[in-house]
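Supplementary Methods, section 5.1.

A reviewer requested that the exact input to the structure prediction be made available. We therefore reproduce it here, unchanged from the version used in the analyses.
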Amino acid sequence: MATTIKDIAKKTGLGLATISKYLNGGNVLEENKIAIEEAIKILDFRVNEFARGLKTSKSKTIGVVIPELSNIFCTSIITVIEDILRQNGYGILVCDCRTDEKLEYEATEFLVNKMVDGIISMPVSKNGEHLKLPLSKGIPVVLIDRKVEGLNVDAVLVDNVAAAENAVEYLIDHGHREIGIICGPRDVFTSHQRQLGYSQAFIKKGLFPKQELIEYGDYTVESGYECLKKLLVKNEMLSALFVTNYEMTLGAIIAINELSIKIPEQISLIGFDNMHLSQVVQPKLTIISQPIHQIAENVAHIMLKRLVQDKYDEAQVINLSTQLILGESVLSKNI
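The structure derived from this sequence is encoded token-by-token as follows.
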């Protein structure tokens, strides 16, 4: 038979109100806290989270909606977020919407119906339609990596314009002019920002970016593979390439190896995100590294702050910087 708080009361000699207050996060006298915790341990008491949620309207659960669970950026961030939330007494429910706006909306609706206390989203929808339901119910929302114009919600972003600009400037400074870029989808916030940085790097140097040097993938290995081949067909003089996420970087490298193209002798390459990939590839890959731990920590702590606030103030938007990690995949050409 399951242990109840009445058993704890009998064991400790304390009143049910005191024990209930402690179990629901309230403050009790230190000696009472010690006695309750000892009884919980001895009696192997388990809190009925579902019943407590019905009573308090708090499930101690945070919903997370991401575009692709197979994306290493998403999973790396979720791991850190989960660790921090768990340490603070919260669990998470993760929904993979397969980069589909309809599935994203359905996933968010599902989480609201599950009475989650907050929602963390890396939005696919440009207008944030899926977030209107939780916001209308006062459920706090924190965005990862992508901003939604017109919504007053917290967001933790990376300065993607500067990230791409730094990578492309580095290639230009090493004598490259025919520099291709593999972007993400045209209508995704981060993809647009990285393409903007690419163009600004050329303009800053008094050069003009060419449309035929730009390809759009969908943040998958397969799209990186296909985009690399398209760029080579359209641009015989292509001498350098900047790929804007980990999976597409991996796909481009697979295509490069398949075509027996040498890095950096025949094509210089700057990839995105994964330090392990940069160390496995020979020669060592130059990459743009995102502060994944910082992103996740900020998202988790903002959510925890919102969960205890009675009044919602102005949205907090944090912009973090990336770092260009130098390897040996960029050849310096004579200018």
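The radius of gyration is 25 Å. These observations are discussed further in the main text.
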